[in-house]
Input
Amino acid sequence: MMNNRNFEILLSESKAKIDNAFALVEASLSKIEKYKLNYTYSFEELEPYDALTGRFIRCVEMFAKYFKTYDSYKSIVQALTYRDLINVMEKSGLVANTPVWMDMRDVRNRIVHDYLPEQTKDMFDRIMGEFYDQLKFSKNKIEMEIY
Output
């Protein structure tokens, strides 16, 4: 059985990982423009977008790990599914929009597949827009957490 101090250490370490992953997402976002639909990208031009997707995946994973630890720390009965976990985090105020987080998870799962240009543009628009906004909201809320 883990005591509160152990959870606090895990949460602190997990928060540091979120900070690093989020900083990398922001670094990628600062180097790219909106994805162009009718443009043929060179391999060099695609590299920053590839970096963003990898960093986005890691960032979503770091948040999920934090949320699981937070749920274990705060709840008597832990969430069994990812959707339940995100719902609990929304009720706790750490997540602003459960459906968007579910979409983020879906995009994270599908990112390794090839898509039509329209789907690729939509994915990058969402990562650069509403998904980034959700990550930023949750990061700011986690910053205010006191254990």
